[in-house]
Amino acid sequence: MYYNSDILHVHKYCFPTTFDHGHSHRIIGVSSLGIRRGNTHVHCYRGITTVDNGHVHYYKGETGPAIHLPSGGHIHCYKGITTIEDRHRHAYEGTDYPSCP
Which Pfam families does the entry mention (predicted)? Predict the structure, then answer.
């Protein structure tokens, strides 16, 4: 069942990367507008991590499908791996809720 027929919305996201090579970064951004996938939708996202340990990493991906909340609304899951910089990379995983009010 598709509750949110309006895909013209975006989501804020912010969560940490894994701790690798002695540090971690934060991933902060705003997704693209929704993209219909069957009876649900996803969002694309891309960006640059925070500067930590003197460098940044790039990331991009597509969220998982909408997960409907009992109280109304929905969230999406984000999961991926950053680019390699300074001979290492970081994994990340999070949702656009509740980490970004």
Answer: YmaF (PF12788)
Q: How far separated are the first and last CA of the chain, in Å rounded? A: 26
- According to DSSP, residue 54 is labeled T
Amino acid identity, position 35:
I
19 domain residue, yes or no: yes
Q: What gap in Å lies between CA 71 and CA 65, rounded to an integer?
A: 18
Structural domain includes residue 4: no
Distances (CA, A) of 86 to 20, 55, 58, 83, 89: 11, 8, 12, 10, 8
Is residue 3 domain-resident? no
Residue 31 lies in a domain: yes
Across the range 66-80, mean pLDDT stands at 92
